[in-house]
Automatic annotation (TrEMBL):
UniProt GO MF annotations: 2-oxoglutarate-dependent dioxygenase activity
Occurrences of domain TauD/TfdA-like (ranges): 34-318
InterPro entries named among the record's database cross-references: AlphaKG_dependent_hydroxylases, TauD-like_sf, TauD/TfdA-like
Organism annotation: Variovorax paradoxus
Pfam families: TauD (PF02668)
CC cofactor: Fe(2+)
Record's protein name: Putative alpha-ketoglutarate-dependent taurine dioxygenase
Record key words, sorted: Antibiotic biosynthesis, Dioxygenase, Oxidoreductase
Lineage: Bacteria, Pseudomonadati, Pseudomonadota, Betaproteobacteria, Burkholderiales
GO BP term (any one): antibiotic biosynthetic process
Length: 330
């Protein structure tokens, strides 16, 4: 076997991390779908122990191959609903449930997060497939959410445990509500909000404000371990560049910025707390370079993911499955 397939070069990783577990073909050119049954027991064990698996060197000739691989784990692929970032469905004859990764400009970083941890229902499994690897940057850094929880300072864990309040103002400065909810109907939006425990308020100029109290810490349903599971640092106003933040607060006021997070009681979370949160996330980050054809499979509760800035072409597609949540808790 080629040496590049039998070892994984990680440019950054905390001591003792096994992320991601590398799996390679039994022979050159082995088709990913043909390898599923051989690899399934090892994949499922590694997901629970390490949280993530990188399948490298397999033949993945089309989007449909990736879609069928993700679907083979026993759950229908999910639609991307109540979106927080722009994505597009991948057009393929059998590619239902496959999306582009977040369509932010190439120069921007996307911080570590667990998919849809800003809601009360999320996918347990998420897959990434590198169709085109960027010639510079474009990594998908990952981190063990159990390790993040353990490393997080006790005073922050205690303050976050009651939950995080997410406030979103949909309009010209953020993803429009029509795209987030996949509808032009206010009635359908309100029905979705009622089902999901989201309060809503229609504003002038066809604007919409939502509020939802969600988990900050969760218990994995299989391993029973505590995980850091929220997107408070992404939604908080401190995630904006300083100049952009100043403009947003000046134009809209703090109540009307596109998105923000608060403690469960509605009180303000200081920038300094998020400085500590981001430092913990950074300390637990694992980074490796994509190879074209790679498939990364993560337990979405056990492992967070991110995106590094890049130059040149890059195409990474995503699929999600196995919904899980806590709709009745709050």
């Amino acid at each position: 076997m080629n040496e590049t397939l039998t070892r994984l070069v990680r440019s950054k990783a905390p001591a003792g991390s096994d992320l991601p577990v590398l799996m390679t073909p039994a022979h050159a050119g082995e088709d990913l779908l043909s390898a599923v049954e051989r690899l399934r027991p090892q994949i499922e064990e590694s997901l629970l122990l390490a949280g993530g698996v990188l399948l490298r060197g397999f033949s993945v000739p089309a989007v449909e191959t990736f879609q069928q691989f993700a679907s083979s784990f026993g759950h229908p692929l999910l639609k991307y609903e109540f979106a927080s970032t722009p994505r597009s469905a991948v057009s393929a004859s059998t590619g239902a449930g496959v999306y582009t990764s977040t369509e932010y400009p190439a120069h921007q970083s996307i911080p570590l997060h667990n998919e849809q941890a800003y809601t009360r229902e999320w996918p347990m499994k998420i897959w990434f497939h590198c169709v085109t690897a960027s010639p510079e940057g474009g990594e998908t850094p990952i981190a063990d959410s159990r390790a993040v929880y353990r490393r997080m300072p006790g005073h922050i864990r205690k303050r976050f445990e009651p939950g995080i309040l997410y406030v979103r103002n949909f309009g010209e400065m953020d993803v429009p509500w029509q795209k987030v909810f996949n509808t032009e109907s206010r009635a359908e939006v309100q029905a979705f909000c009622e089902r999901s425990g989201i309060s809503w308020e229609w504003k002038d100029d066809d604007g919409l404000r939502t509020r939802q109290l969600c988990q900050a810490v969760e218990t994995h349903p299989v391993t029973g371990e505590q995980v850091w599971f929220n997107q408070a640092h992404l939604f908080h106003i401190s995630a904006r560049e300083a100049e952009e933040r100043e403009v947003l607060e000046e134009i809209y006021g703090i109540e009307n910025v596109p998105r923000n997070t608060f403690f469960a009681d509605g009180s303000t979370i200081s920038d300094e707390i998020f400085d500590e949160v981001r430092a913990v996330l950074d300390a637990e980050t694992v980074t490796f370079l994509w190879d074209e054809g790679d498939v990364l499979m993560l337990d979405n509760m056990l492992v967070a993911h991110a995106r590094s800035p890049f130059k040149g072409p890059r195409k990474v597609i995503v699929a999600m499955a196995e919904p899980h949540g806590n709709l009745g808790r709050f």
